[in-house]
Design a protein that fits this description.
With about 300 residues, the chain is an all-alpha fold. It is about 60% helix and about 0% strand. The chain binds fe (ii) ion (2 copies).
């Protein structure tokens, strides 16, 4: 049997899609979950992920990454490296585990939202990989921090932090909920991969790995580098979601939000404080329930 090269079949599988016969498109992809109001739905076919892989490639690569990170951890567990780390660096590591471990887990449903409601097949595929990435990141952060709980109870904050009302955590919770929990797929793509992962995770994680090595924490450097390689891949979901080609206006950054009056309503006042976005109107409750919220009644629209 001839085995096709990946590049010979991948375009077919990544763009496989369905025309629905039992329900209209707006019901299957309601605008308040998918986003992208004012965008020609056909334009999303041109959404392109530059860094591609198949499921088999993904699983093979991730297995190697995990094997590398966890074997270094197992080897160093018996050393005295931790006892000799500078206190300043330990505080840095604690802050990382405290602020980001649970957020990695929060990113799983955010990625899954794009995996379900993303407006083209390639994007949905990438988001499935992204969801599995974020699950791995939550697990690896929990496992690496757990080792140190017996030496320093502060490491317990990797689990505990987001169950407290510590003021730093309140701010972080509001920030991450704002762009991951109560947003459409397009909103998630703009807030998470385009803004946060490209502008923060990628830069901060590379610097943090270098910082860890400088301090002698090979274990942490190895862990954060392993995470960063995933972030670099799934951060690419943001760029093409910002500007699908062939749109009439050349811009697709119209925004949607959770339906007005629902328990998942977005934090409207926060968005209106930025100059880039303004509230236009809210879809009626009946319109989003029936899936007929139209581009004439978006909750958010770009002014740029
Ligand atoms: Fe992550
Ligand atoms: Fe991520």
């Amino acid at each position: 049997m001839t085995i096709l090269k990946r590049e010979e079949w991948h375009d077919i599988t990544r763009l496989t899609d369905w025309d629905f016969s039992y329900v209209d498109h707006e019901t299957a992809f309601p605008i308040w979950m998918s986003g992208g109001e004012g965008t020609d739905r056909n334009a999303w076919v041109n959404w392109r992920e530059d860094y591609r892989n198949s499921y088999a490639e993904y699983v093979g690569t991730q297995r190697e990454k995990d094997a590398a990170a966890y074997s270094v951890k197992a080897a160093l567990q018996r050393s005295e490296i931790y006892d000799n780390l500078p206190e300043g660096w330990k505080s840095n590591a604690k802050l990382h585990f405290t602020a980001l471990t649970a957020i990695e887990y929060l990113a799983v449903p955010a990625e899954l939202k794009m995996a379900r409601f993303g407006l083209t097949g390639g994007w949905r595929n990438m988001a499935v990989f992204g969801a599995m990435d974020e699950m791995r990141h939550a697990q690896i952060n929990l496992w690496f921090s757990h080792e140190f709980v017996s030496k320093d109870i502060h490491y317990d904050w990797a689990v505990k932090s987001y169950h407290t009302n510590n003021w730093v955590i309140i701010a972080a919770r509001a920030l991450f909920d704002g762009f991951m929990t109560c947003t459409s797929a397009v909103d998630v793509a703009l807030g998470l991969p385009f803004t946060f992962e490209t502008g923060f995770s990628n830069l901060q994680f590379v610097a943090l790995a270098a910082n860890a090595l400088d301090s002698g924490d090979v274990n942490f450097a190895n862990m954060i580098s392993s995470i960063q390689t995933d972030e670099a891949r799934h951060a690419q979901q943001g760029g093409p979601s910002r500007t699908p080609r062939n749109t009439p206006s050349g811009s697709s950054t119209a925004r949607s939000g959770c339906p007005a009056g629902s328990s998942r309503s977005p934090p409207a006042p926060r968005w209106t404080t930025t100059p880039r976005w303004r509230v236009v109107s809210s879809p009626t409750r009946s319109s989003w329930r029936s899936g007929s919220a139209s581009s004439s009644s978006p909750r958010w629209r770009t002014t740029a």
